[in-house]
Amino acid sequence: MKKSIFLTTTLLISSGLTLNFYDQSFSAEVCTPLKVVGGEEGQILLKKTVSAPKIPIGVASLKRDNWNTDFAVGSNVQYKRYIATLTPLTEGTYSIRMFLKYSDTKADEVYNNKPQLTAGKPLVISDTPDGSEQPYQINLFVGDAESIAKTYTISIKACK
Question: C or N: which end of the chain has fewer Cβ atoms within 10 Å?
Fold first, then answer.
């Protein structure tokens, strides 16, 4: 009797694992790294240190900050979701916002938070576009007075 229960349990567990692996192979996403706008040719990972804020003088600025980073989305592909991975190299609080930018000048803010991050431990932000319209860029905004001098790397993948 014990042998029969053990055999039945083993078969059930085995078939469950087989079905689980079978399902995963069909639902796997294919993700493509996005290129940094204005970066080096083919650059998909960017390392930044948050600069001091820009200093406005009338309609001009004395100094530009580096708080915005854009990643280009291919125009001929439909993606289901976007995954940003920010890895802090400096511990502390970061002011982070992420936007999906559309060709009609609309920008959907999909993340706005001030997390306390640990050096080397990635923060992953994921979102899906609204409706059938695809963004042309993903914008990551990292900066405020509390974030100055903190260093991080950022990359974004588009998945279909």
Answer: N
pTM metric for this prediction: 0.76
Q: Is residue 152 part of a domain?
A: yes
CATH number, position 91? 2.60.120.1380
Q: If we measure between CA atoms, which residue out of 138, 121, 120 comes closest to residue 129?
A: 138
Asked whether residue 36 is assigned to any structural domain, the reply reads yes
**For residues 65 and 55, what is the distance between their CA atoms, to the nearest angstrom?**
9
Give CA–CA dist 29/35, Å, rounded.
19
pLDDT tens series, the chain, 160 aa = 444 444 444 433 344 433 344 444 446 889 999 999 999 999 999 999 999 887 666 665 555 678 999 999 988 888 999 999 999 999 999 999 999 999 888 899 999 999 999 999 999 999 998 777 899 999 999 998 888 999 999 999 999 9
Tokens in use for 37? 């706008």
